[in-house]
């Protein structure tokens, strides 16, 4: 049966998957996050941890409290590298999406990426809001009123404008609509003029539509100082955010978190990188949710969201996708020489949350016995973690750290609380309990086969 | 000089196998350059690659990477899991040999 399943997978399912992965829009978005935004997300998160040191607020007296006081006093300073790295996430994404998509069309990624970045900046500020004598100039708005739109709030507009800018360039190339210069103009000079028209069109369209939107519509936003909702002139960012808010809210729900982990593990069960596939769609939502947490923390509010990148990479995939770290220790002490061998190879990578040796060595993929705990353990862990974070027993994720940070250290830094490290210990115990009987059954099977 | 690319999601889990392959190549006195790449990086580097080996977990990328016109194969899951450099190196060399004949 498993053979026919595997044949069906390779012949029918794999082409469908490669369509998802090959889809140039999804790939442009995913690569924009991974290659353009991720380094700055990680650097920004480091400064975020500095600004909000993982020390309980109730630490009274002593050097712990003085670190807390120091960080609280200098927080506006400590936050600057964060605000202008992770905080400018959407600026990076707008560039990255346009760059990747343009390159996939074999157009000039750099030029088109820069155009998209400028278009995105225009879509983030109110344009032409009526003032007492003439429309308000840009300088009348405080910088802080833009920062949100350049970070998480502007994410979907950034993605959209990245695609839009690349497509408009492709349209001009395809239709041959360019400024024709007379013969004899050096080709390099002619090319620089040809590039101007699509850039001019993209920026004009965004600018004019932004002008219309800002001068005709209002959007409801949370005022960070008074914590009340106020109506402000709309921008592309604010409009799209309002439109997509229900979807972002839904992404943060328990059913959504469970669906995501089950999908990841079902893909891995047939030996396909599930995190990779699911994150192709989920990454913008995770990042959006995490940005909201960071903003809330900066304002001293409770963190609103749970389903973020660290929720999976740090708190669910302990030792790698499938929470296989406890299994590695069982392998090391197995009676089967084959499994012991796998355990030895898997131990060091496992400590850094890489577990392909386990998935393909035990093997778990295509192995009906091991697939059960491989899906069940992470699904249980996600349920427990969601409950623990929803009820407030465990602090919610705030910092996105590299997924290779070992268990316990990672849990501690991701939510800057010992509760995160403790949660990982509980999760490890859950995974150990769920894996153990299946590990024994598989071990018996291997031993019997080697006897025969 | 034979340039081999080992591809996985981020180029992290394949880097284990790269080490082991490099060791085997040194023992055999072969001039090879082996690089661990993420699926997103292959296209940009394709000019500096002679042969591509894919980790089994990203074998769905086979179709798109085949368009680069390089000899390409998926690594056997067990070879991948146990980082058996010898088998993987032989696979890469066989792919290239197949092309020359």
Primary descriptors:
heterodimer, A: 452 residues, 2 domains, globular, B: 101 residues, alpha/beta, Rossmann fold, 4-stranded parallel β-sheet
Please tell me about this protein's structure:
The complex is a heterodimer of chains A (452) and B (101). Chain A is mainly alpha-helical. Chain A folds into two domains: 24-250, no CATH class; 296-451, no CATH class. Chain A is 69% helix and 2% strand. Chain A has 20 helices and two strands. Chain A has helices spanning 2-22, 24-51, 62-78, 80-83, 89-104, 109-124, 144-150, 155-175, 187-194, 196-216, 236-251, 254-269, 274-298, 309-313, 325-332, 337-351, 356-361, 368-390, 409-414, 418-451, and strands at 218-222, 229-233. In chain A, strands 1-2 form a two-stranded antiparallel ribbon. In chain A, α12 (254-269) packs antiparallel against α18 (368-390). The model of chain A has no long low-confidence stretch (mean pLDDT 88). Chain B is built from five helices and four strands. Chain B has helices spanning 14-28, 42-45, 62-66, 77-81, 85-100, and strands at residues 2-8, 32-38, 51-54, 72-74. In chain B, strands 2-1-3-4 form a four-stranded parallel β-sheet. Chains A and B meet through α1, α2, α16 and α17 of A and α3 and α4 of B.
